[in-house]
Structure formats: structure tokens, C-alpha cells
Design a protein that fits this description.
35% of the residues lie in helices and 21% in strands. By secondary structure, the protein is of the alpha/beta class. Helix 1 (44-56) packs across helix 10, helix 2 (78-88) crosses helix 3 and helix 4 crosses helix 5.
């Protein structure tokens, strides 16, 4: 039996081959991933997409590719130490999930190729020089979240005809720039749709209740902005929304399946699966600067009719027919 030692990365044990202590570069390519959640189980929905995408390209984990997963457990200061550990591991590609992970990877290395996933505006965030020509060692896949808020609000208004105003729930500790851009986009869309608007900062799970228990004047719907912590706490958000009878527009279909009312958002599973293509190209010699940032092309409009019934909403058939998926 080969001896192994274990290190703690972001609060999770990671197997480290005994031979690595001799600092020998493994012959099998190694991909390090910076996850924002606390475990492989919590990230299973998306980790499986990367694994399936790699498998479709001929990679068999443990045979001709190694994935080293690290977990920040929503404590974003851990991204820097996790990135440092992966760099010491001499990974061939560093995958950064979420803006804070991408910023940590950018600070940590100028040499190892970095593929970011789910960064709304990588140009404004100064991760890349441009979408077409990223420059440097970083490229990836955007979810373009804030640019979709206008269309999302239009559909929210159709799903909830009595909607008079919205509360946008943001987490500036995740990515202040994205939060700021999201507020601006939502304000513009709300004004165009003649909806009252306010934004509320939520940085800890124990702050969710006040968003739903004390809606602002003239607002009777909550828009949950894209954020790793919000996704992790999606069941709590859904339970509070049902308790206080507040319709929600969320940012991922999985959140609708867990009780959110509706979403219009990029197909996040598809984005993660597509990240395998970037990993493959880089391992075969393509430089990150030669890989344009990919924007989402597939979007999901999903409605939960069970949630609608609990909220006392009768969603018109014409609106249901627009949906890609209706949960009954």
C-alpha cells in the first residue's frame, strides 16, 4: 500500500501522495479547483459536471487526470491559502469558482493557467484585458448575471402580476463590483417597469429573516442576486419566502427546485461542463490568452407551481408556456 499523508485545505482533508514530498512533478496532469462551499458533497451538482465534461473528452479521473478539490466553506479569506497550497502542489491548471476565488488565483500566480467560472464581468473586474483577448494567464466562463436582471424582472412581473416593487438581496463581501453593477442594472429595470426598488446587503445567513419579515415600502417581491452563500442557503431562503408569503426570483434552477418561485438565468450546470473544454485545451498546449472568455448562450426560465400555489398566485397559462421547465 502506498503511504499517504493528508493536509487540511480550507477545512477539508486532501490526500497528498507521499512522493510529492520529494517535489516530483506527477506525470499525470493535475487540476486544482478552488470551490467556495465546504465539501465535495455541497458542490456535487457542479463537480459532477466538470467530471462528466472531462470524461467526455477522454479523461479518466485517477488514471490520466487528477482533480484536487479545495473548499473555502464560504470563508473567502481561505481562497488565498487554498490557492497557495495548489500552487505548491504544482497543478497544471487552476480552476477558480466565483469572483473571490478568481481574484485569489490572480494574486497567487502569473505562471499557472487559471480558468475562472461564474464571473459576471471579468473585464470590469480586471481579471482579463478583454473578452476576446484575455491576455495574461487567466481566461474562463462568465455567467453575465447582472446583464440578465432586466429580462428576469420582466418575467417576474408576468409571474407575479400584483408585483409592485422588489428588494434586491446582495452580498458585497462576495464581489463588491458585481453587487454594485447588479444594483444599477436592477434600478434601471425597475424604473422602466415602474416598480419600487430597494437593495439590502446580506452577508451572513442569520440576516436573511429581516429581508422577508420587514419588506420595504411598496416592495412585495425579493430578487436574490447571484452569490455562493445564497446558493448554499437556498433552502432557508425558500422557507422564509414561503413563511412570509414573499415571491422570489432566484438565480439558479436548483433554487427553484428547492422552493424558489422562478428563475431566468444561465444554465450553470452547462457552464461548469463547458469548463472542461477549457481545461482540455490548456492541457494540450493552448495558452489562456488565446482562449476568449465564453459568455452564456443557454438560459433557463423555470417556474415552481407548487410554490406559486402556496403563495396564492395563479400564474397565467401564457406565462407557463414561456417556461423551459414548470415544476408541479
Amino acid at each position: 500500500m502506498r503511504l499517504r499523508e493528508f493536509i487540511m485545505v480550507g477545512g477539508a482533508a486532501v490526500a497528498w501522495p507521499f512522493a510529492a514530498r520529494a517535489q516530483k512533478k506527477p506525470t499525470v496532469p493535475t487540476v486544482g479547483i478552488l470551490w467556495h462551499a465546504g465539501s465535495a458533497e455541497e458542490e456535487a451538482i457542479f463537480l459532477s459536471q466538470i467530471q462528466d465534461g472531462l470524461q467526455a473528452l477522454g479523461y479518466v479521473e485517477g488514471r490520466n487526470i487528477v482533480l484536487v478539490n479545495t473548499f473555502a466553506d464560504e470563508q473567502y479569506e481561505r481562497f488565498s491559502s487554498n490557492a497557495a497550497e495548489l500552487i505548491r502542489r504544482e497543478v497544471d491548471v487552476l480552476v477558480a469558482v466565483s469572483p473571490p476565488a478568481a481574484f485569489a488565483a490572480q494574486r497567487a500566480t502569473k505562471a499557472i493557467p487559471v480558468v475562472f467560472v461564474l464571473v459576471s464581468d471579468p473585464v470590469a473586474s480586471k481579471l482579463v484585458a478583454s473578452l476576446a483577448h484575455p491576455g495574461g494567464n487567466i481566461t474562463g466562463l462568465s455567467n453575465l448575471t447582472e446583464d440578465l436582471l432586466g429580462k428576469s424582472l420582466e418575467l417576474f412581473r408576468q409571474v407575479v402580476p400584483r408585483l409592485s416593487g422588489i428588494t434586491l438581496m446582495i452580498n458585497p463581501s462576495h464581489d463588491p463590483l458585481t453587487a454594485e453593477l447588479s444594483v444599477k442594472q436592477a434600478q434601471i429595470a425597475a424604473q422602466r417597469l415602474q416598480l419600487n426598488f430597494r437593495s439590502v446587503e446580506v452577508q451572513q445567513p442569520d440576516q436573511f429573516a429581516r429581508v422577508f419579515s420587514s419588506p420595504g415600502d411598496g416592495t412585495n417581491g425579493v430578487v436574490v442576486n447571484a452569490d455562493g452563500m445564497f446558493f448554499r442557503e437556498r433552502k432557508q431562503i425558500a422557507e422564509l419566502a414561503l413563511k412570509y408569503k414573499i415571491p422570489t426570483s432566484v438565480f439558479d434552477p436548483a433554487m427553484v427546485e428547492d422552493g424558489g418561485l422562478m428563475t431566468y438565468a444561465p444554465d450553470v450546470k452547462f457552464i461548469f461542463r463547458r469548463s472542461a473544454t477549457y481545461i482540455d485545451k490548456i492541457l494540450k498546449g493552448t495558452k489562456p490568452e488565446e482562449l476568449p472568455v465564453e459568455l452564456p448562450t443557454k438560459f433557463d426560465f423555470v417556474i415552481n407551481l407548487k410554490t406559486a400555489k402556496t403563495l396564492g398566485l395563479d400564474i397565467p397559462n401564457s406565462t407557463q408556456m414561456l417556461a423551459d421547465k414548470v415544476i408541479e
